[in-house]
Design goal:
The chain is α/β, with parallel strands linked by helices and about 350 residues long. The chain is built from twelve helices and 13 strands.
Length: about 350
């Protein structure tokens, strides 16, 4: 496929090559409306600045970017540990970019980040968020390998690899445990669907509620602790009583929920049983110790990085042989990792002798 040029953008927008060049180099002297037209045309055409276009293929493939979607979620700490282990830090440079600072996803930030990654000749990308279709097309056009983790690979012509949790069965496991306690009133506090894990987690919780004949409320919050606090507070203010069981969709939502319950002197688990997605380092040290789903994020990171490394090395080998090369993905590159329920006492179980708990299949 022929690579787009500044001349192509000029033709599409009707603006001069000089104006297009100044806008793309982020120089002054271009109106905001013209700049937006130029950026949109550049995105539609898959344009990358000539400096990158000239050097991209000759680049040493030793730098990998990890795109996160709110680094306030401690899930990413173990994920990054697994990625670093698999990529051999002495040989690979790993850079991290967040497209959802404080839980607020910014599509413009995603677009800018993808551009910068192309311009800096990144060897490959691990993304924790399902990227916008135009950005996945752009990465594919420039033969940049991508692996998705903790998010679904996008549908379409490019069969990108992914390493995810089996979220549907994980939710069924949570529902079974709450039903075993006899809880008949559940609240699932969950983040927006922009994070694709939400879909399967919610589907599993709804299925579990149906199987066990319990009442379920699904409450959407912004993906940060402050939003979780406010959203749950508004729900409790409008309800005659708190739910008997609260399921927090991730670490930030759990943090906001715990703060609210503490402020209102609602006891865990005697008033409200709590279970959360995503194990975290101090989950056994909360009061009471937290029952969580362990998604094995470190293992997910290792698998994703190992897949990406293999694809990059094959690509580099082909290029050194003078062959035209694009990333080659395999059917087994789409993997699901089973979660395990770590039972402590926030769900109403008796405290385990070992403060770091046991895993229940």
């Amino acid at each position: 496929m022929a690579k787009s040029t500044i001349r192509d953008i000029s033709r599409v927008t009707g603006l001069s090559i000089f104006t297009v060049s100044r806008a793309l180099s982020e120089a002054d002297g271009v109106s905001e409306a013209s700049r937006e037209r130029i950026f949109q045309a550049a995105s539609d055409l898959g344009y990358v600045r000539n400096r990158a276009a000239q050097e991209l293929r000759r680049a040493s493939r030793d730098s990998v970017a990890v795109i996160t979607a709110s680094t306030s979620n401690s899930y990413y700490l173990d994920l990054m540990a697994g990625i670093q282990q698999a990529l051999e830090p002495s040989a690979w440079t790993v850079v991290v970019g967040d497209v959802a600072v404080n839980g607020a996803y910014d599509p413009n930030l995603e677009d800018r980040m993808i551009r910068r990654l192309l311009e800096s000749r990144t060897a490959g990308v691990i993304s924790t968020l399902t990227l916008r279709p135009e950005n996945t097309r752009l990465l594919a056009q420039w033969d940049i390998p991508v692996v998705f983790v903790d998010s679904s690979a996008p549908d379409g012509e490019f069969l990108f690899p992914s390493v995810t949790t089996d979220n549907f069965n994980a939710s069924l496991m949570v529902g079974q445990h709450l039903a075993d306690h006899g809880y008949e009133d559940w609240l699932f506090l969950v983040y927006p669907a922009r994070w694709s894990t939400r879909l399967e987690r919610e589907r599993g919780i709804r299925e579990a509620a149906l199987i066990h004949g319990v009442s379920l409320v699904v409450l959407e919050s912004g993906n940060d602790a402050g939003s979780a606090y406010k959203t749950l507070a508004a729900h409790l203010d409008a309800s005659p009583r708190p739910p008997r069981a609260l399921i927090a969709g991730n670490n930030p939502l759990l943090l906001g929920s715990m703060q609210l319950l503490s402020d209102r002197r609602i006891s865990i688990p005697s008033d409200v049983a709590v279970v959360a997605f995503d194990e975290f380092a101090w989950s056994a040290l909360t009061n009471p110790p937290m029952t969580v789903l362990n998604e094995h994020s470190e293992e997910i990171g290792r698998r994703a990085a190992a897949t990406l490394k293999r694809v990059i090395e094959k690509l580099t080998e082909a290029e050194r042989s003078g062959k035209s090369a694009s990333p080659v993905y395999l059917a087994e590159d789409r993997q699901q990792v089973p979660a395990k329920l770590i039972v402590r006492s926030s769900c109403g179980c008796s405290a385990a002798p070992n403060p770091f708990a046991t895993e229940a299949a």
